[in-house]
Amino acid sequence: MPNALDFIKSPSDRQVMELHFTQKTAARPVIMPPGVPEERLAMLRRAFAALGQDKDFLAEAAKSKVEFNFVTGQEVDKVVALIVATPPAIAERYAKAFAPERN
Fold first, then answer.
1. Which residues of 26-38 are buried (b: 16+ CB within 10 A; e: fewer)?
2. What angle, 0 to 180 degrees and rounded to 10, lies between the N-to-C axes of helices 38-51 and 73-84?
3. How many beta carbons lie within 10 A of that of residue 90, not counting itself?
4. How many CB atoms lie within 10 A of CB 19?
5. pTM listed for this prediction
């Protein structure tokens, strides 16, 4: 099934929409400061992956009506890389396009 990006012809329009859709992938990421040792990062990523599969945790989230969709650290890294690499002109178009309406 096609998605909205399949219908966008303009490269700059596509970048704006990719930024919009992709950044929503990692709505509330857990972040760490630069320089965290790789083994610690790997351990934390494994722990979060295990939490994302824990039946008791998922049941409690559902019971509390908390939306929970696990996203891997690698996917979050891709989102961050896309955001960081966004040209200023595209970021400005995005900000204007998705700014809240003022009454």
1. beeeeeeeeeeee
2. 110
3. 18
4. 21
5. 0.69
| Token pair in block for residue 32 | 């760490």
Tokens of 15: 């970048």
Token reading at 23: 């950044």
Sequence-separated (6 or more) residues with CB below 8 Å from residue 18: 5, 82
Q: pLDDT tens digit string along 69-78?
A: 888 888 888 8
Q: How confident is the model at residue 97 (pLDDT cuts 50, 70, 90)?
A: confident
Q: 10 Å Cβ neighbour count for 44?
A: 14
* Rounded-to-integer distance, Cα 25 and Cα 6, Å: 18
Q: 60 in helix, strand or coil? A: helix
pLDDT digits 0-9 by tens, 33-64? 999 999 999 999 999 999 999 999 999 999 99
3 Rama sector, left if φ>0, alpha if ψ -120 to 50, beta otherwise: beta
